[in-house]
């Protein structure tokens, strides 16, 4: 009788260990997936971001290298969201700027101009070590604005939603106010509409 109870206890313990390992491995926890392998969904997501960034970076870098051929100092402007859904356009901008900086394209951050001027003024007081003081006349003005928008057109065909998304970016030369480069990335997304039940 004691031996039989011991065997039952061993089976219960063994089954509990298997159940716990199954829960910890497959039933819960966070899983990481490569964003480039995202299959897409009805909402704006990693697939749209990666496709847009790759297209814009390749096209803009090619223009600056082959056609412009001179130093470019770019001020990045916000991408406007003109769609009917929430899109974090700052994420798209950040990825584009990061990729271009890795390719040695220079961006101007005008938001710290006041801080830079204060540091120059401090250097002129004699309180700052001349070896580290910021000299006057070192600031660089942008010669380009990079800006754009995301727009969409949504229609319903039967029980499907059809969304045509267009991401447009342009590079405007400040001296002449001419658009020197412009690129688009299009998405046509078809998804089933959700039925409302009571």
Tell me about this structure:
With 198 residues, the chain is an alpha/beta fold. The chain has one domain (42-192): 3-Layer(aba) Sandwich (Rossmann fold). 38% of the residues lie in helices and 28% in strands. It has four helices and five strands. The chain has helices at 2-27, 46-68, 89-102, 113-124; strands spanning 73-82, 106-108, 144-157, 160-173, 178-192. Strands 2-1-3-4-5 form a five-stranded mixed β-sheet, covered by helices on one side. β1, α3 and β2 form a beta-alpha-beta unit. The mean pLDDT is 85.
Q: Beta-strand level of the residues, as a percent range?
A: 25-35%
Give the integer mean of the pLDDT values. Answer: 85
Structural class: alpha/beta
How many domain modules? 1
What is the number of helical segments per DSSP (H or I, 4+ residues)? 4
> Mind telling me the C-alpha Rg?
28 Å
CATH architecture annotation: 3-Layer(aba) Sandwich
N-to-C order of helices and strands: HHEHEHEEE
CATH top level class name: Alpha Beta
Salient structural properties:
single chain, 198 residues, alpha/beta, Rossmann fold, 4 helices, 5-stranded mixed β-sheet
Which helices and strands, and how do they pair?
Layout: H1 2-27, H2 46-68, E1 73-82, H3 89-102, E2 106-108, H4 113-124, E3 144-157, E4 160-173, E5 178-192
Parallel strand pairs: 1-2, 1-3
Antiparallel strand pairs: 3-4, 4-5
Quick gist of this model?
The chain is an alpha/beta fold and 198 residues long. The protein has a single domain, classed as Rossmann fold (3-Layer(aba) Sandwich).
